[in-house]
Structure formats: C-alpha cells, structure tokens
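Fold this sequence, please.
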Amino acid sequence: MSWFLYIVRCSDKTLYTGITTDIDRRIKTHNAKKGAFYTKNKLPVKLVYQEAMGGRSEALKREKSNKQLTRKEKLGLIRGDRLAKKEFRKQLLKC
C-alpha cells in the first residue's frame, strides 16, 4: 500500500500537513468537515503539495519533520525550492 505526505492550504491561508493512502478521498473528507479537527472550520482546503512515501513509517517521520518546519520553509517546499527540500531532509534526520 502506498502512503503519501500531503499539504493543504486552508481557507484562512494556513497550511495543514497529513498522511494518507488516498489523497483524493482524504481531501474530500476534509472538505466534508469529517477530517482533522484543525481543518473543520477552515474550509475549503486545497491540495498544494504531495509526496509519495515508501510506507506508513516513513510517512509518519516525514509528517513529523514537516510540522517542525517554518511556514516559509513549507512554502519553499511547495514551490519546489532546493534549499527548502534540503532543510526538510535535515529535519527528517533529527527524527
């Protein structure tokens, strides 16, 4: 089973990070107010980043790393900046 890290932009412009095995289903769940508590009052959410992971364990580690990044670093990751990806990998090594 494939796992994915995803980032959504909420209606208030905040970013939310999660993991799932089915991104389309997860986004629909968020937008139906049945997803994470954080997103329930910040609808609609829009998918802005996704990354395939090797398994659930790797996805959980990446999620933890991503949640430790600053907003600026997350936006860089979304844009595909090399520096942001390097910082993301550094954070992952700390886990």
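Residues 7 and 91 are 17 Å apart (CA to CA). The mean pLDDT is 88.
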